[in-house]
Amino acid sequence: VQVDESGGGLVQPGGSLRLSCVGSGDIFRNVASGWYRQAPGKQRELVAEVTSGDKIDYSDSVKGRFALSRGSAKNVLYLQMNNLQPEDTAVYLCYIRDNWGVAEYDYWGQGTQVTVSS
User: Fold this and answer.
1) Is there a contact between 35 and 92 (Cβ–Cβ < 8 Å)?
2) By C-alpha distance, which of 17, 55, 59, 15 is closest to 33?
């Protein structure tokens, strides 16, 4: 299984980016997927995730600015990020949780860099 993120880059404060995440390979049952981010010297933090029943959760810091959505293809996820601020600068990582009934495992991508700076 491989998870690939794309769409990061350099943007000015107030700008927008759209991140994409594509999971490929033998994923049995995607029960959750989402985005985390990690800034230098800080712990990895949840940005947004969708879990069973299509429940979407956002961190308080991105509510109202970011929107998580699923693609029409299986195991595709997007993160629309609007009104980006310097504190959003981080590596954004996508995960997909695969569940086989008796066990589950999180697959992670390598991340895509988002830099917000004037």
Assistant:
1) yes
2) 55
Instruction: Say whether pLDDT at 100 is over 90.
Output: no
Are 90 and 35 in contact, with CB atoms under 8 Å apart? no
| pLDDT one-digit tens code per residue, 54-77 | 899 999 999 999 999 998 888 999
Tokens of 71: 């693609």
Burial class (CB in 10 A: 0-12, 13-18, 19+), 14: exposed
Nearest to 47 by CA among 38, 32, 36, 55: 36
CA proximity to 83, closest of 71, 67, 69, 70: 67
- Residue 14, SS3? coil
* DSSP 3-state of 86: helix
What secondary structure, in 3-state letters, does 25-76 show?
Answer: CCCCCEEEEEEEEECCCCCCEEEEEEEHHHEEEECCCCCCCEEEEECCCCCE
